Amino acid sequence: MHPITTRLAAAHDRPAIERLLREAGNFNDEECGVGLEIVDVYFSDGPTGGVNGDYPTVVAERDGVVVGYATFGRTPMTESTWHLYFIAADVRIRRAGIGRALCSAIRDVAMVRGGRRLVLETSGRELYDATRAFYDATGFVEEGRIPDYYSPGDAVVYYVWRW
Amino acid sequence: MHPITTRLAAAHDRPAIERLLREAGNFNDEECGVGLEIVDVYFSDGPTGGVNGDYPTVVAERDGVVVGYATFGRTPMTESTWHLYFIAADVRIRRAGIGRALCSAIRDVAMVRGGRRLVLETSGRELYDATRAFYDATGFVEEGRIPDYYSPGDAVVYYVWRW
What we know:
Two copies of one chain form a homodimer. Chain A is α+β, with helices and mostly antiparallel strands. Chain A has helices at 14-24, 29-45, 98-112, 129-138, and strands spanning 4-8, 57-62, 65-74, 81-89, 117-123, 141-151, 154-162. In chain A, strands 1-2-3-4-5-7-6 form a seven-stranded mixed β-sheet, with helices on both faces. The model of chain A has no long low-confidence stretch (mean pLDDT 94).
């Protein structure tokens, strides 16, 4: 048994998070940069930030090794909507429940703070077929799609997980 | 004739922008705060920011008085999508073309930088009926809607203006 556990990210997790982003294979340079930028906002919030900051970040561990991470947060100007901004899992470990463990942890944090739904934006391209299949299996539902949003032929898909 | 002109906002416009937000009648305290927060990011970018910063902001003037403003910007991680983040016009001056002048100015800036579409998020509530009618008349098309996004019964509506 190799159970997956989750905890809030700490500054020493930054190299692992950067590696997860770079190795995921579906984030380009700008996307990796934005992913790290918001993780750094979370780290710079310090002890007063945590789950109450703008970009709380959790990591998933297996056998003491960081194998996934996610950055999320309350959606500004909404009453009970939260956003999943970035999520990445170790590509060498498939079907181990990393994504599901991260999403469960996020839901737990959001629920305690009155969150009722988690929204994410992802790509409609084939490269993201497995990613979208994961969201479908986790309970997310596609509720909108804007063609050519990321680039010609690459739509944004809005997924919502309600509980 | 009282023509509407537009120009990039300057730091001395901040009180006028705050008044426009407060008097608009459809922004709550948190929304006014976020609107001002991103305008302050634009101001703090200084001379190197302008239309190339994260939150370029334009004002509309009539007879030398600021009667409207908008904050917009290139959508991160997209190739040619721009976002309209905030727009407000003087509620005492109706049907003067303020909103249209601001949107035209934004399109001009975005087009020169390769922008092909302007996306905005607004509320589906009745309070926003006139606002959505303005977007419809300007050329925006509703391309998505997530129920209960802002609060129970208050959906987010995604509008896209393509050119």
